Amino acid sequence: MRAVLVEGEGKNNTLVLGETKAPKIGPGEVLVKVRATSVNQADLLQRRGLYPPPPGVTDILGLDIAGEVVDTPGETSQWEIGERVFGFVTGGGYGEFVTVHEALIWPMPSSFDFESAAAVGEVFATAYLNLFVLGMLKKNEKVLVHGGSGGVGTAAIQLAKRAGAEVFTTVGSRAGEKICIELGADYVVNYIKEDFEKKVLELTSGEGLDVVLDFVGAPYLNKHLGILREHGRLVLIGLKGGTRTEVFLPPLLTKRLTIIGSTLRSLSRQRKQELVKEFRKEVLPLLEDGEIFPVIDSIFPISQVEEAHERFRQGKHVGKIVLTWHAV
Ligand SMILES: NC(=O)c1ccc[n+]([C@@H]2O[C@H](COP(=O)([O-])OP(=O)(O)OC[C@H]3O[C@@H](n4cnc5c(N)ncnc54)[C@H](OP(=O)(O)O)[C@@H]3O)[C@@H](O)[C@H]2O)c1
After folding, report:
1. pTM for this entry
2. Residue nearest to atom 12 of ligand 1 (CA)
3. In testing the pocket of ligand 1, which one of 237, 260, 297 has its CB within 8 Å of the most ligand atoms?
4. What is the 3-state secondary structure (H, E, C) of the chain?
5. What domains, with CATH codes, occur in the chain?
6. Predicted local confidence at residue 233, as pLDDT
7. Res 7 pLDDT > 90
8. Residue whose CA is closest, atom 38 of ligand 1?
9. What mean pLDDT do residues 37-61 have?
10. Is pLDDT of 11 > 90?
């Protein structure tokens, strides 16, 4: 099969469309012909050797898939050949074919094309897991979503608003601000021009927030402890800004705060199955009805994966960058 392959190592690697062995299904798995996938931060890190796939997982990049089922475990399978499916995978989304456990994919909404579906799995599942399952965000609570114009951010704003939360978000550009307001964010703070800690406290009359969804890490940690109110939850899904810092601990005790860390990719299959099932019940109908939707920045043919990664790296995108096999 054709697949995006990493040539070279470290900073000097390049991505090329080459030939590799197609995967074969194992017990309980389906084989999906991938029609579209997307760019995630994990792909940029993995290609540089900084985020290796979990043990036993293909080293082909790609965490999102949308495509058609071409092989199933047999008559007992819940999927039929030709069925359009989508979801997040642990790796392999940049190949023409990928295997995935049959309990870890969703049927594609009929109104969706493959490119839209490929923009959903990783970021919406991440937002859902971290806001509601781990962050336990509830109606009328206040949440801060960092990077509101990014893939996870655009998903998280929509999901949090649908759940009846008040949404604060950070952006670094005018274009980012515009999309966050369109998606329903209540307050948008430009983190480059303003100190978000000060601004959030000002906007909440000093009360603070219930949940923070963060991927910046070290440089924001003390600020987050400062803006969370009693029983607040900080959910850490990335460490883009750094991994070490000195922490001022008293707020953790006095406000009874919780810090939760999580990665979707290395979650156990059992936990992923539960998440996929819950997401299918709670989120899929909203996508089907168009009440929430993936925000798509751009669509590149998979042959231009290098250009797509460069756009993501520059951080000028708003929403998801999609890769399509259409006409390649
Ligand atoms: N743990 C997990 O399971 C998991 C799963 C998926 C993703 N992630 C992580 O979540 C993060 C977001 O992913 P994504 O796909 O949404 O990436 P993305 O599309 O690149 O969005 C992130 C956005 O954050 C903004 N940003 C950058 N630095 C910032 C800062 N210091 N403060 C506030 N905002 C900042 C950038 O926009 P502007 O600066 O232009 O506003 C950027 O567009 C990544 O770090 C990714 O690795 C974790």
Report:
1. 0.98
2. 152
3. 237
4. CEEEEEECCHHHCEEEEEECCCCCCCCCEEEEEEEEEECCHHHHHHHCCCCCCCCCCCCCCCCEEEEEEEECCCCCCCCCCCCEEEEECCCCCCECEEEEEHHHCEECCCCCCHHHHCCCHHHHHHHHHHHHHHCCCCCCCEEEECCCCCHHHHHHHHHHHHCCCEEEEEECCHHHHHHHHHCCCCEEEECCCCCHHHHHHHHCCCCCEEEEEECCCHHHHHHHHHHEEEEEEEEECCCCCCCCCCCCCHHHHHCCCEEEECCCCCCCHHHHHHHHHHHHHHCHHHHHCCCCCCCEEEEEEHHHHHHHHHHHHHCCCCCEEEEECCCC
5. 2-120+265-324 (3.90.180.10), 123-261 (3.40.50.720)
6. 98
7. yes
8. 172
9. 97
10. no
